[in-house]
Design brief:
With about 180 residues, the protein is mainly beta. The chain is built from one helix and eleven strands, in the order αβββββββββββ. Strands 2, 3, 5, 6, 7, 8 and 10 form a seven-stranded antiparallel β-sheet that branches. It has a four-stranded mixed β-sheet with strand order 4-1-11-9, with no helix packed on it. It comes from Flavobacterium branchiophilum.
């Protein structure tokens, strides 16, 4: 009888065990905003030069190359697209984009401010991974414009940005471009 009770306790003990809850690195989590850059005269894809992107409240900027240890890790250089995070705790994120950052010729350094306005929705992924946030850029009357350039909704051009096109309002994946910037 003691053996049966011991066997039952062991059996129930194993039945109570769960598999390890480890979030697979390949699991898609909260997506970043994907911006692609184009030449404003030819409409062809164009690489940015020493682009530094700084979010409101940050001093250093977004890290684009984590393998570097110098300040160059904050520069998007010789790339035609970037991925930047949106705040998951607010309905707007403001970034300062500095083109040709660090140039010795100050007349070739240009700064524009972009504010992204959106709504957020949390989606359950799994117990191990938790939730991810998906974003919808504003596209309805009565809401702030989806992208505001240099703090004015009426601006269509900036100091180096000649135009902005929203390609996709729903930000659910990093596998597609959401915003096109012409310069």
């Amino acid at each position: 009888m003691k053996k049966i009770i011991a066997l039952l306790l062991i059996t129930f003990g194993f039945l109570g065990c769960e598999k390890d809850d480890i979030c697979d690195a390949a699991t898609v989590t909260t997506p970043k905003l994907v911006i692609h850059f184009y030449d404003s005269t030819t409409n062809l894809s164009k690489n940015v030069v020493n682009l530094k992107v700084i979010a409101d409240g940050m001093s250093e900027g977004v890290v684009f190359n984590s393998s570097l240890t110098t300040d160059e890790k904050y520069l998007a250089n010789a790339v035609s697209s970037i991925k930047i995070p949106l705040k998951t705790t607010a309905d707007a994120t403001k970034y300062t984009l500095i083109y040709n950052f660090g140039s010795s010729n100050a007349s070739t350094v240009f700064t524009d401010i972009l504010t992204f306005n959106y709504t957020r929705k949390n989606e359950y992924i799994s117990r191990a991974c938790g939730y991810k946030t998906i974003f919808d850029l504003n596209n309805s009357a009565g809401l702030p414009k989806a992208v505001i350039l240099n703090n004015l909704e009426t601006n269509t051009t900036g100091n180096w940005i000649d135009g902005i096109t929203i390609k996709k309002y729903n930000i659910t994946s990093e596998n597609e471009t959401h915003i096109d910037i012409y310069f």
